[in-house]
Amino acid sequence: MATVDQSTQGASPPPLSVLKILVADDNPADRMILGRLVEGLGHEVVGAEDGREAVEKFTANRPDLVLMDALMPVMDGFEAARLIKDSAGEDLVPIIFLTSLTETDALVKCLEAGGDDFLTKPYNPVILKAKIQAFNRMKEMHKTLRAQRDLISSQHQRLVRDQELAKIIFDRVAHAGCLSAPNLRYLQSAYAMFNGDILLAAYKPSGGMHILLGDFTGHGLSAAIGAMPLAEVFYAMSARGFNVRDIVTELNGKLGQILPIGIFCCAVLMEVNPSKGLVEIWNGGLPEVLIVGRQAELLHRIPSTHLPLGVANAEKFDPNPVVLAMAPGDRLMCWTDGVIESRSQSGEQYGEQRVIQLIDSYAGRPNELFDGLLRSIEAFHGSPEDDISLLEMIMQEQAPHRPAASSLAAHHQSAQDWQLGYTFRAASVRQYNPLPFLMEVLMEIPGLRVHAGSLFTILSELYSNALEHGLLGLESAWKRDSEGFSHYYIERNQRLSSLREGWIRVLLDHTPTAEGGILRIEMADSGAGFSHQPMAVNDGYAGRGLALVTALADEVTFNTQGNRVGVVFSW
Amino acid sequence: MSDNPPDLDSDVQNSLSELMREDYRLLLETFMNDAEMRLEHLRLNLDEQNWESFRQTAHSFRGSCGNMGAIALQKSCHLAEQAGTAEDADAARSAYLQLVVLYERVETLLHSLLQKI
């Protein structure tokens, strides 16, 4: 403990920080003594003779601490204290009143006027030193607190700016697609997006659309970052005519490559094909996808049967979707686990059972289902749930939109008079979808680009006929009802993965004419031909593909054996 | 004044001498100038019956007397302050006269201290 002698002789070590201290006292002898005491403690003194001078000196010198007599001429210490506190603003400037006052009321008045403490005359150097140190600690603490508050506030502002920026980029990515299509309805809360939810939709070149609903693990902006490559791959591949298997395989590989361990993406990828009344659904880790009929009756529940994207390596990954028939007016609904895991005040989860019950209660009113579900979740949760992504897709009568393929290459002179033959053997057929490649070849002819949708449809129908009926020997008759339908596609996947022999040959032949050109497409396969396995044209689902081709092409011919088909398309 | 306090506490003066060092002389002179000014003020306030000013001046003087160790003066200042608050002319006059007498003694003591420096 410092004694009077030590502090007055400057024998004690200098204080950690030198403070600037305003000493305001109208009594010159007192001012001299106090000034010298303060200097003796190692601090810098600014003197003032009255209240007004104290305020002026405060403004000019911004001292750290004020020692001020309460009773002074011109302006008393109380008034000066108020002005000094005003002038200090957010800075903590402790004011210690100097007083010979001993009455309780007078001391209280010192504190009420904004004083932080008082020091009675005659001065006791030990107490003076202790008080200066105490207030300096308080001031340092205040400064630290304020600096940390400012830091938090500035980091928060930056976070908000980052999120706003990310939202702009996100919106642009999402809006590059066709989420605004009339048969789609969705809700995606901003909070859900930053929890890593993503919803994408794109028209396929042949009509119909691809839809992806994804939910990345983790929270915050980092969970959302994976959405960017996901969206990029999804749009690029969908535009180039790849199917669900291709896209989901590529997404899985890409995410597996770039996402750190523990981060992956639960997703549903769908291909909607109104012209054939089909939907293909690949569900990896998201809640059940539901399909309801025109009376809101529950038709299908499609649970997750795959690992989320970015988990399985290429060999173990199963890209095969569930294929289901959907009649016009049927509704498909899917959501991220925010819906199922929404909790009530008591912590209970909403759960799938409640969703199923809710659908029952909307029997005959399918239009109200979407809003009804939202209201139900809100009522359950107690407030609007801000962490859900919800999508409803209504099956349409036929493809709503057949955009031309987006500009694939700059306009340049290209060969127009050529023939190209390509044979895909078993190993290629198993693993490779040749359609995007064939389309790119055709799109080299600028005049064909506006017909991209039709050509893609023709090629994909011919190819799937050659593959499914020719090579895999599947019976189209199976596809007459929805049970046979799923049997058909399960069988398709099994037979395809064990395919070891056979081939599909594609011949493309283009000759220019004065107005445009003539494209001949020949698709042959090593199968037995439909003469042995009659195709029931225009019968149920089965014949739809060829009916469509017939409608789009100028001429469709078959060889007698029924394993080679020729199509002429003039433009 | 029954307990007869000392006119000047020599311990306080020793401490001040150590604290102020080369400025000790200046401190004593400053105190004496200030004290004469305060006494003059008190006399004027008394003539004018300006009790608020009388009280304030006595209060301020009390503060510096305390710091100087002029304990008898400090106590009389307190009496003067109380008289000012009470607006008691007789008590005020009596306190003032006491201050004059006491200050003369203190001044003598301080002058002798000054000569020793």
From TrEMBL, chain A:
This protein is called: Response regulatory domain-containing protein
InterPro entries in UniProt? Bact_Sigma-Reg, CheY-like_superfamily, HATPase_C_sf, PPM-type-like_dom_sf, PPM-type_phosphatase-like_dom, Sig_transdc_resp-reg_receiver
Q: What is any one GO biological process for this UniProt entry? A: phosphorelay signal transduction system
Q: Name one GO molecular function term.
A: phosphatase activity
Q: Which PROSITE patterns match?
A: RESPONSE_REGULATORY (PS50110)
Response regulatory domain residues are 20-136
Q: Which PANTHER family match?
A: STAGE II SPORULATION PROTEIN E (PTHR43156:SF2), STAGE II SPORULATION PROTEIN E-RELATED (PTHR43156)
Keywords carried by this UniProt record: Hydrolase
TrEMBL record, chain B:
Superkingdom is Bacteria
Tagged with keyword Coiled coil: no
Q: What CDD domains would the database entry show?
A: HPT (cd00088)
Instruction: Tell me the residues on which Phosphohistidine occurs.
Output: H59
Q: Which GO terms describe its biological process?
A: phosphorelay signal transduction system
Q: Which InterPro entries match?
A: HPT_dom_sf, Sig_transdc_His_kin_Hpt_dom
Protein keywords: Phosphoprotein, Two-component regulatory system
Q: What is this protein called?
A: Hpt domain-containing protein
